[in-house]
């Protein structure tokens, strides 16, 4: 298994960046999903209960979109808390990856899409430094998820 490639200083600054956006986990998580569904409409097809939601406004108001936005942010938050412990980190990422690969059959490219949107939102709200300090974390998450997908035969 590969270990994390982040230094202690990088872990600390990534946590600082994440905290800024995680303070409003539900709103920001929702904003990320709404942007993903709007800019990449094919991603919506995985969520059968989101099909009828056409406008960004409808999506923003939807309890189901809000609930999933919060869930995504909670999962990332768990990963961010364990960036300095690869065993604990993988303990979170592995079941999540397996579930998305085997049960939900989500194309792994969508993880990169959602991570890029999170980085965009960070930059818009808190500037380029914030985005830069979180970029390595998103690469780490996507790399591990892709590895899990390969193990599951994608």
Automatic annotation (TrEMBL):
Query: What reaction does this enzyme carry out catalytically?
Result: Fe(III)-heme b-[protein] + nitric oxide + H2O = Fe(II)-heme b-[protein] + nitrite + 2 H(+); H2O2 + AH2 = A + 2 H2O; 2 superoxide + 2 H(+) = H2O2 + O2; Fe(II)-heme b-[protein] + nitric oxide + O2 = Fe(III)-heme b-[protein] + nitrate
Q: Name one GO molecular function term.
A: iron ion binding
Q: Which Pfam families match?
A: Globin
InterPro entries registered for this protein in UniProt: Globin (IPR000971), Globin-like_sf (IPR009050), Globin/Proto (IPR012292), Globin_lamprey/hagfish (IPR013314)
Please name the PROSITE patterns in this protein's record: GLOBIN
Work out whether the entry's keyword set contains Metal-binding: yes
Keywords (alphabetical) are: Heme, Iron, Metal-binding, Oxygen transport, Transport
May I ask which residue range the UniProt record assigns to the signal sequence?
none
Domain Globin stretches: 5-150
Q: What is its EC number?
A: 1.15.1.1
Q: Determine the domain of life of the protein's source.
A: Eukaryota
Q: What does this protein do?
A: Involved in oxygen transport from the lung to the various peripheral tissues.
What protein family is recorded? Answer: Belongs to the globin family.
Q: What is this protein called?
A: superoxide dismutase
Report the source organism: Urocynchramus pylzowi
Provide the gene name from the record: Cygb1
């Amino acid at each position: 298994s590969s270990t994390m490639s982040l230094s202690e200083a990088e872990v600390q600054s990534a946590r600082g960046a994440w905290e800024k956006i995680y303070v409003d986990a539900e709103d920001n998580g929702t904003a990320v999903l709404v942007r993903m569904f709007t800019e990449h409409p094919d991603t919506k097809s995985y969520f059968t209960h989101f099909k009828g939601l056409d406008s960004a406004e409808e999506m923003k108001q939807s309890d189901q979109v809000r609930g999933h936005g919060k869930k995504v942010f909670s999962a990332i938050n768990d990963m961010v808390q364990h960036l300095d412990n690869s065993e604990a980190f993988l303990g979170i990422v592995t079941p999540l990856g397996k579930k998305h690969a085997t049960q939900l059959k989500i194309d792994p490219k969508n993880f990169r899409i959602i991570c890029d949107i999170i980085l965009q939102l960070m930059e818009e709200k808190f500037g380029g430094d914030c985005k830069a300090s979180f970029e390595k974390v998103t690469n780490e998450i996507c790399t591990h998820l892709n590895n899990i997908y390969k193990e599951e035969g994608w």
